[in-house]
Amino acid sequence: MARKRSSRSTTAFIFFAFLSIIAFCAFVPVFAPLPSLSSHPNQSRHHSSRHKKATARNFEISNDMFWKDGQPFQIIGGDLHYFRVLPQYWEDRLLRAKALGLNTIQTYVPWNLHEPKPGKLVFEGLADIVSFLKLCHKLGFLVMLRPGPYICAEWDLGGFPAWLLAIKPAIRLRSSDPNFLHFVERWWEILLPTVAPLLYENGGPIIMVQIENEYGSYGNDKAYLHHLVTLARGHLGDDIILYTTDGGSRDTLEKGTIRGDVVFSAVDFTTGDDPRPIFELQKEFNAPGKSPPLSAEFYTGWLTHWGEKLAETDAKFTAAALKNILARNGSAVLYMVHGGTNFGFYSGANTGGDETDYKPDLTSYDYDAPIRESGDVNNAKFKELRKVIKQYSTASIPSVPSDNEKTGYGLIHLQRKELLFDILNRLDSIEVVESENPISMESVGQMFGFLLYVSEYSSKEDGSILFVPKVHDRAQVFISCSSEDNGRRPIFVGTIDRWSNQKLGFPKTKCVSNINLYVLVENMGRVNYGPYIFDRKGILSSVYLDGRILHQWKMVSIPLNNLNKVLRANPIIQVAYSELTKTSARRKAKENVSEEPAFYAGHFSIDNVNHVKDTFISFRGWGKGIAFVNEFNIGRYWPMKGPQCNLYVPAPILQHGENVVVLLELESPNPELVIHSVDQPEFTCGSSIANVRQL
């Protein structure tokens, strides 16, 4: 279908031009700038991966055991993802993992974080993987690297860049589709030479590199797996151990492994399952003598979706399950040792039996791990696991550090700064995408955040019925009559969501002109696991009004700050820096309340540099939206759905002096227009309560 970009003056789109100013391009994930801890890895990508070995270092498999420099080695590791922790806290979290007794760190590499736009590479700030790996090495950890290209990880699209979904004809993800492999090859030609100098044989910490991720739970394309192995060997050499990880069943192992001694097959399974028959099954998929028992994902907790009870696992039960593996000379990697946070828009989602059974993940990725989201270790799970690990560790375990101090900065008064639809009258022209029918966010070039769809229809005195068969993921629908003086205020009609799609009845509206229809669609996170990962966003079907297809659409992007960079000038944030006083905020609270999407801003001061501490912002009483602190996207809030009430704000985001908070509230602000800075997390919002699981 043909589409064109046009630049025209129209009040129907003015406020979105304003929003386009506040964001980067639709492709580029943006975050508050964080200091790079190393030079750009491209500086090393042209060096050969066959580096001269500094010492006689080797890590190998023999006699169904791991061997490190000629000595038997038991992996007692944990997953800790560099992209879910601020770089300023990497060392803090790693030292806590060391105090737990771990000797190995396992981490994924999210392709979409590093290549948010085709050919645009990011290896700084949260994406500075080289510095993270070097820090692991400095602190005495070995590393198991999981470069994908698919990672799952409860991360948007399983780590794939969303721009892959805009390629025509559509590519087949996780397959031997030549068009897909072309982009994988291009990515790994950058990534793998970057990490090659950090292989164990080259003096670095990387002992193993994973091929794909739990592929046996998805497909059975052996040509795809073999191609990935060939690519990895070409860039990393023949000595590094390549491995796969699959569920501990015959079916998943048959599909997801490569038999023989080319690739080591590891397993994962439900915590508490008897490991003996699973490790015996694992042997069938490895060469004789090449099957050290390894649970590559030993689950210390579980994930939680919006609207669910908080998933928690019993500490003693989890510790006993770990002992059951280690006591049999098995190796295990705790998933997670520290979960961290899904800052920005990168949290993923799952589905049930079909793609309409959509379950988006929380902003918090605490995972009920022994090292909690804010780094706390003074908890039963950390203590119980440490007792077990201490029995099997061959090295002395450091003392346990105290929890980092957290504080609450108290009540923060907000003021409404801009109603989205008020900005219609603020600017003169914007650039829009036009199409006969709605097109996806990815096709417009909008990867994250929101997209506005605008059309119009003839007025009917008896109202109309709107039906959108397929919207991903949540749409707020408004109508307005443009013929009235300055245009009537948009009327909120209702919400259409992916998981309970229903028709909307429009109110009776008298209008001498056509009625404007606005559909504001939110991308709540792409599916990261299962058969429905090809998860495009936006309106993905025709739109029906009274049974007839509605044509002539205009799409306007509303990209907001996500990860890695911010604009030099952000008008919304600049407005938030204007003079705000508690007195005026209180006085105007009632008149500032609106059910329309709007930006709200407030500030709080930290008078002493020594008082800059971790904190949490409580959104109790608010509806649904996105929060920014000092231009840093701390994530989505949705206390009406729960269970997460508070968002974590690490101290490095804050500063001595004034700190600004900006919310994009989508539907129902707190009537008092206040939020609270508190000193602890809370997961009791909505109708959800904690659910202690024994996996």
* Oligomeric status: single chain
* Mean pLDDT across all amino acids: 88
Radius of gyration, in angstroms, nearest whole number: 26 Å
Note the main sheet: 8 strands, parallel, barrel
> Which structural class do you get from the secondary structure elements?
alpha+beta
Give the CA-CA distance, first to last residue.
49 Å
Please tell me what the overall shape is. Answer: globular
Protein name: beta-galactosidase
Domain Beta-galactosidase galactose-binding: 597-659
Catalytic activity: Hydrolysis of terminal non-reducing beta-D-galactose residues in beta-D-galactosides
Keywords: Glycoprotein, Glycosidase, Hydrolase, Membrane, Signal, Transmembrane, Transmembrane helix
Helix-strand blueprint:
Elements lengths: L2 E6 L5 H9 L36 E4 L2 E4 L2 E3 L2 E5 L9 H11 L3 E5 L2 H4 L14 H10 L3 E5 L31 H18 L10 E5 L11 H15 L4 E7 L2 H7 L7 E5 L6 H10 L9 E6 L11 E3 L1 H12 L4 E8 L10 E3 L6 E3 L19 H13 L17 E10 L10 E6 L5 H4 L5 E8 L7 E3 L3 E2 L1 E8 L9 E7 L6 E2 L9 E8 L15 E2 L4 E2 L2 E2 L3 E6 L12 H6 L5 H11 L5 E9 L8 E4 L6 E5 L2 E6 L8 E4 L7 E9 L8 E5 L12 E3 L2
Parallel strand pairs: 5-6, 5-13, 6-7, 7-8, 8-9, 9-10, 10-11, 11-13, 12-36
Antiparallel strand pairs: 1-17, 2-3, 3-4, 14-15, 16-29, 16-35, 17-28, 18-24, 18-28, 19-23, 19-26, 20-25, 21-22, 21-24, 26-27, 29-34, 30-33, 30-35, 31-32, 31-34
Helix pairs in contact: 5-6, 9-10
Pfam families: BetaGal_ABD_1, BetaGal_gal-bd, Glyco_hydro_35
Protein name: beta-galactosidase
InterPro entries: B-gal_1-like, BetaGal1-like_ABD1, BetaGal_gal-bd, Gly_Hdrlase_35_cat, Glyco_hydro_35_CS, Glycoside_Hdrlase_35
